[in-house]
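Example 3.2
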Amino acid sequence: MKPILLILLPLTTLFLIYGVVVFWKMSQQLGAVPNGNRLARFESSPQFDSKTGRFQNEFPPEGGEPNPPFFTMLKLFLFGHEIRIPRSPLPTITPDLQAFLDTSGANSQETRVIWLGHSTLLLNMSGRIILIDPTLSKRVAPVHFLGNRFQPPPLTLEQIPELDFIVLSHDHYDHLDRSSVRFLKKRLKPGARIITALGVGARLESFGIEPDMITELDWWEKYETGNEAGNLSFTATPAQHFSGRSFNDRQ
């Protein structure tokens, strides 16, 4: 065998192996799209457009979606560091979890919030602990070389207390983080629920979440629950935004 082939063959093999691993990791991060009963409910929504096979905002912006062209966005992601990356670490405060969780006496009816960055919020509502859009991993992206955090969150996944609810607004990587959700499954109390937007349930099932733990809500639908601390109601309200985790699953 010629020397050049002795070099190219192992390099090509390594490249192919790397490509297979990256593709496999990406497919895990993407998650599934609605099928079966979930698809039937998805397609029965008043917001579903049967002609396009996608959801439609009630008041679509004139001229189409108000987002830059794909290649403009790609350029900003790859080369726009000066407008995307903080020049120095942002100020943080280490939360006092003991005080946050205290529901004794006059504290029993208080609502407390800890902001953990971006859209990640930890709430204590009369003793019921709710985590919104948990993205607490080092990276939130379909591949390992994208999506690095600028700095660690104020709380780690291991420090998150036991949860009554996780609320997921939509399926973008910076709101629905597979690694965080899979870890936090261990933090859910018995009977706890994950409440999310219609269409996201299939993603969660493919991430290993049991179907009976998932509640999907279409616009203006409610999930209501109650205990000795009082009633709690979650309502899905419309958003002028889009969804999707790949190139062909938008809306």
